[in-house]
Write a structure and sequence with these properties.
The chain is an alpha/beta fold. It has twelve helices and seven strands. It has a domain of 160 residues: 60s Ribosomal Protein L30, Chain: A, CATH 3.30.1330.20. Helix content is 40%, strand content 18%. The chain has a seven-stranded mixed beta sheet, sandwiched between helices. Helix 9 links the parallel strand 5 and strand 6. The radius of gyration is 30 Å and the shape is globular. The termini are far apart.
Length: 321
Amino acid sequence: TQITKGLGAGSNPEIGKQSALESRDEIRPFLEGADMIFITAGMGGGTGTGAAPVIAEIARECSILTIAVVTKPFQFEGKKRNIQAEEGIAQLRDIVDTLIVVPNQRLLSLGGRNLSLLEAFKKADDILYQAVKGISDLILVPGLINLDFADVKSVMSNMGIAIMGTGMASGENRAVEAAQRAISSPLLEDNTIQGARGILLNITGGPDMSLYEVNEASSLIQEEADEDANIIFGTVIDQNMQDEIRITVIATGFDNISKKKESLGNVTHLGGYRRDDLATPAFIRRGKTQNNLNFTNVNINDETDNMSDIQIPTFLRRQAD
């Protein structure tokens, strides 16, 4: 572009954004006609952080199902880069249909002290690849119970933050173990599917995979999701898998839950008070002190009181006075 003159964005997201805006007319033809696109980027730098939202905006204008799979920087990359990453992710979140975030810092929990810098960045790239492959395989790989683009779209369209996990296991309890690994990956931003409103579930195994195992795995995942979740289920028999089961789970719809809770927590009632404030006595909410009431004993036998007056309506008694 004219802005960068063939160079990078210099870790400046604004330059990345302006470069993408300058190239909108060149980018659009590559997107038009697609049913679904993936945007993968390392957030925090200039090009990915600045250009990814622009590309997502073009895709939305073309009514394309858009899924972003992005990484967050390692902590050692600096505070500024991490702040820029968060800002870029926030922008993407408002534009794409589904957003999967993988924090690079979580790689430390897998590789330990012996993980080299080269291996760490290679793993980060591989995670992006596996996430995209996991979704595309749901559509492209034929199965005993097939999932197609319509299934993916129903779970991922306008769903916000998503969680994706893949688990493999072998042995006696392979189905349950694979399911548990799929929904508890340490590489995911929030490693739980609790409260998800949409689930894509794909179970792959060899010819020996039993109906009981499929039921075990799917039941475990259903219990973790929202009780009203839209769960779309597919199975694949892979002749090359010996004594192994692989389970891929894509969980979406967390934004709907959080927004609903947030709106309930901030409901304004008469008097301008929130729901949480109502447990506080009114005089404290209004900034006043409580006055002690002075009660006077009344002698109902007082000669000045005429009990028969009680039977007379108040307005008539006042007229008589």
